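ok trying this again, last paste got cut off
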Amino acid sequence: MSASPPRAPLVVRIGETVMGLTLAVMAAAVFINVVLRYGFGSGIAASEELSRLLFVWVVFIGATLAYPYGQHMAFTGLLRLWRHAAGGRVLAVLTRVVHALVLLGCVLVGWGAWQQVVVGLSSRSVVLGYPTALLPLPALFAAVAIGVMALVNLWRGRTIDLGADAPPRAAPGAGTPR
């Protein structure tokens, strides 16, 4: 009997469910609006505004869920060059630098998102009338969540997965041996 794969943590399953439901609502809203516009010459104005709001939320929820799995852009090509330098100490230092830069980026994104949330509290969207603070709010949540994860990685000195199982790439221009 084979072992079943480990279950994702509850927060990941909730995030994926929210993303799926959000994508379903977006797809339905856009589809209905397209049918109404091209089939009947009318449309639902709220559909575009709702889809834009939901898309922003999906992007930042997805970014937050992808971070702990190392599925964001990484510097693995650069870090691989230093994998064995000085017994791996150079890689350990560079890994901490990467985590610190991610943390700095999160602070900057979080600060800017917070300023936009504050500005958005006093204004409303044109069609649906929701507070426009709901647009930058997921960026703030994502910056805080990813920042906390990066801080934990920095504190623990967690290394970045270099994809050790993947075969090394050939140098550009290098042909196959004859």
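PB: full thing came through this time. The longest helix spans residues 89-120.
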